[in-house]
Amino acid sequence: MSKDEKEKVPIVDKELDLSNAGRGVWLVKVPKYIAQKWEKAPSNMDVGKLRISKTPGQKAQVSLTLTQAVVKLDPDAEIPTEHILDVSVVTKQTLGVFSHMAPIETNHFKDASCSDPEKLYMEGRIVQKLECRPIADNCYMKLKLESIKKASVPVRKVQPIDKIVQNFKPVKDHAHNIEYRERKKAEGKKARDDKNAVMDMLFNAFEKHQYYNIKDLVKITKQPIGYLKEILKEVCDYNMKNPHKNMWELKKEYRHYKTDAEKKDDDKTATDSDTDH
Question: What is the CATH number of domain 189-252?
Answer without folding.
Answer: 1.10.10.10
